[in-house]
Design a protein that fits this description.
Layout: H1 3-8, E1 10-16, H2 19-35, E2 40-46, H3 49-52, H4 65-75, E3 86-90, E4 102-107, E5 115-119, E6 136-138, H5 142-151, E7 156-158, H6 164-172, E8 180-184, H7 185-190, E9 199-200, E10 215-220, H8 224-231, H9 236-252, E11 260-267, E12 272-280, E13 287-295, H10 299-316, H11 319-324
Parallel strand pairs: 1-2, 1-3, 6-7, 6-8
Antiparallel strand pairs: 3-10, 4-10, 5-8, 5-9, 11-12, 12-13
Amino acid sequence: MSDKQEAEHIVRIGGRKSKLAVAQSHEIKNMIESEFPHLRCTIRALKTLGDQVQSKPLYSFGGKAVWTKELEELLYEEDKEKRIDIIVHSLKDMPTSLPDGFEIGCVSPRVDPRDCLIMAKSSPYKGLDDLPDGSVVGTSSIRRSAQLRRKYPKLKFESVRGNIQTRLSKLDDPATPFACIVLATAGLVRVGLADRITQRFDASTMYYAVGQGALGVEIRSNDSWVKQILEKISDKHATVCCLAERSLMRTLEGGCSVPIGVESHFDEDSKTLRLRGIVVSVDGTQAVEDEYSMKIDNVRQDAIICGQQLAHRMAKNGAKKILDEINLSKVEQ
């Protein structure tokens, strides 16, 4: 592409229509325009199947593809006016294996990846330890409920779907069945609602989701011009950690919402990645927890190997058996 063409080029961003998704698209837009002042980004927000079906847990009607498929079609749209150049996703919502013709162009700097607890505004309680037996915790994530059942077997867990504002409204309703809900910290931070967080969980209570807190930018494979742009906004620390986490999940063959949790840290001075993982049975009674560390010289290759090595160790210790026994169609939240 010539300098003149580049100067006139518009980067067309696609994303979901929720308030959080739009905020995420603007985050990438601002990063690109800051690095490339001569470029202009437009944002197209689309309501996907995952946004439209709010009455069922995701695993019951298509898994993570419900967030991605309709947007992916726009990357190869024949009408150039409707075509988009990149898709901004919550990385945790992206399948670990993408269809042919698509790839992750970059991973953005990661916001706090931990899960958090939100109590109703009128609640006298400050944490899960304070809740009476039988209190209802709202979450549609098997990963979250499985880990919490392990530590809090006397609490109850029920599904709660919808965007952040919808879930908070359900929690604060005087007639709510929920004592509290569990959400990703990053989502609340991105939409300016961090003040609602009652407690942030460390790994002693809950390992976070693969890719949580980071944005994954999906592109057409071999789109060299877009790749050059995204290289400037890619975050090395987040890329190393998230590639390893996704490799762990892919190797364990864990799909949407299965109870695989992670915690990772990359020390850029020593080039050492420490990856921790956990697999928990849905009822919380069985768990396999392990960690693996290795030096990262080649970011993509070594991060993927690190995830594979930890997955093989965990599988040998029973993690694969736990995952194989999960029949998602029969799981009750």
